Amino acid sequence: FIILSQIIFYFFFIVEIKQEGKIYFLYCRISKEWEYDDSLLYQEELLRKKFWELSEREDGIRYELVSEKDSGNKWRRPEFNKMISKLEVDSTLPFDEQKYWWILIFKIDRLARNSKDFIRIEELLDKWYKIISYTETIENTPTGRLLFRMLCSFAIFESEKLSSRMSLTQI
Fold first, then answer.
1. Cα maximum dimension of the chain
2. How far apart are CA 76 and CA 79, in angstroms?
3. What is the mean pLDDT of residues 38-58?
4. More confident residue, 104 or 96
5. 28: part of which helix (H) or strand (E)?
6. Rounded-to-integer distance, Cα 137 and Cα 151, Å
7. In sequence order, what are the beta bridge partners of 65?
């Protein structure tokens, strides 16, 4: 009976720790609602796998999946803004009370394609939140931040180039 009660106590203790662990955001996005639904599912699957790899090294973490079907150059994406707002509010709390930790993404250009969103994200990086990209290595070092800014610039450039092509076809 003593061993059984210790096992039960151990089980509830572990479950309780896991419930209080940090939360990772898994952010997936495709550009248009009608376009490439398989791509969204593929991103979700890869990010879940990456999360499980990371969770083997850290106890008590969980994830919140955020999927969106909207253009990354729009700054009024509801799911993205909810996620960033949660992180901004969380960042005002003492470190030991913060709930959120990292954002897992497939690729930088899936996260955003406009400078306003990238500035908000970079401000969160200043507060020790971290972005983990499935396809790029982004570190919170001077070199890593330079790479982050360059990738952001390329994502904005690509979006603007695509927009200019689309406007030419409508002439």
1. 81
2. 9
3. 88
4. 104
5. strand 23-30
6. 11
7. 26
For the stretch 107-144, pLDDT in tens is 988 888 888 888 888 888 888 788 889 999 888 788 98
- The H or E element that residue 120 is part of is helix 115-126
- Cα–Cα distance between 155 and 87 in angstroms, integer? 22
**pLDDT-above-90 percentage for the chain:** 31
Q: Is 64 helix (H, G, I), strand (E, B) or coil?
A: strand
Residue 125 and residue 82 in contact, taking contact as beta carbons nearer than 8 Å: no
The confidence score (pLDDT) of residue 24 equals: 92
Length, in residues, of the chain: 171
For residue 141, count other CB atoms closer than 10 A to its CB.
Answer: 9
Sign of CA dihedral 152, 155, 160, 163: negative
CB-based contacts of 138, cutoff 8 Å, min separation 6: 108, 131, 132, 144, 147, 148, 151
Amino acid letter, residue 129: Y
Per-residue pLDDT tens over the stretch 56-67:
877 778 999 999
Q: What is the model's pLDDT at position 19?
A: 41
Per-residue model confidence (pLDDT) at position 171: 56
Distance, CA of 146 to CA of 138 (rounded, Å): 9
pTM, two decimal places: 0.76
Q: How many CA atoms lie within 13 A of 151 on its CB side?
A: 20
